[in-house]
Write a structure and sequence with these properties.
By secondary structure, this protein is an all-alpha fold. The chain has one domain. The chain has three helices and no strands. Helix 1 packs antiparallel against helix 3 and helix 2 packs antiparallel against helix 3. The radius of gyration is 24 Å and the shape is rod-shaped. The model has no long low-confidence stretch (mean pLDDT about 80).
Length: about 110
């Protein structure tokens, strides 16, 4: 039977926390830096602004304009939510790494 010293268990837990922290931070950075999604969202928002600002829109196209504006709002909300999730993942990663530090130093 293998016995572990308390210090070995602490270091193992700290190592696992650091690994999780790095994974969470990388995932958060990847989420924040996903420029392709942001570029597509901006293109759609620009196109919807062009449609809604056209002076030749008739009453039949009023519904299209309203739908386009709603689509633009939804995409803007999606972009903001994506950035929030990325920042949250980075914050969780930092807290894992800080926990590992305190386990190794103060325990």
């Amino acid at each position: 039977m293998v016995t572990f010293e308390p210090r070995e268990i602490q270091l193992t837990i700290a190592l696992i926390l650091v690994l999780f922290g790095v994974i969470f931070m990388l995932a958060g950075m990847f989420k924040l830096l996903a420029r392709d999604i942001l570029k597509s969202a901006r293109t759609i928002a620009t196109q919807s602004a062009r449609i809604s600002s056209s002076k030749r829109i008739t009453e039949d196209l009023a519904r299209l304009t309203q739908s386009t504006a709603q689509l633009s709002d939804s995409i803007n909300e999606l972009v903001r939510t994506s950035a929030g999730v990325g920042a949250f993942l980075i914050l969780i990663g930092i807290s894992f790494i800080a926990s590992a530090y305190f386990i190794t130093i103060y325990a």
